[in-house]
Amino acid sequence: LGVRIEGGTTLVVDSWIPDEWPGFRVRLRLPGDGTQYEIAVENPDGRGAQVVSVTADGNAATVEDGLARVALIRDGGRHEVRVVLGAA
Questions:
Q1: Quick check: helix, strand or coil at residue 16?
Q2: Which of 21, 45, 60, 82 lies most in the core, judged by the most C-beta atoms within 10 Å?
Q3: What burial class does residue 37 get, using C-beta atoms within 10 Å of its C-beta: 0-12 exposed, 13-18 middle, 19+ buried?
Q4: In sequence order, which residues have a C-beta less than 8 Å from that of residue 14 and are 6 or more positions away?
């Protein structure tokens, strides 16, 4: 699904899903402190070629070269990430 943690500090979403998929959800629990990330990947136009926007807890996050990059917060809490896919 293209969801991974890079260097222990950054959540990276590099999802390319079939056009017919409306999206998917992933829940990650970080080791050590129990921080949780609820990640929703959406494919609203049925053109899931690359990441076009990302928010973390309602705030804009970085899209770089078609990848979502979110700095991880390790506070034992729950965080929401929304990734929207679109045409390349």
A1: coil
A2: 82
A3: buried
A4: 2, 3, 4, 51, 66, 67, 68
User: Looking at this protein, which amino acid is placed at residue 49?
Assistant: A
Distances (CA, A) of 75 to 1, 33, 36, 62, 68: 25, 7, 9, 21, 21
* Token couple for 35: 């921080």
Which of helix, strand or coil describes residue 69? Answer: strand
User: What per-residue confidence (pLDDT) applies to 19?
Assistant: 86
Q: Which DSSP letter does residue 77 get?
A: S
Rounded mean pLDDT for each run of 10 residues along the chain, 88 residues in total: 93 89 94 94 88 96 92 96 90
Angstrom distance (rounded) from CA 87 to CA 39: 20
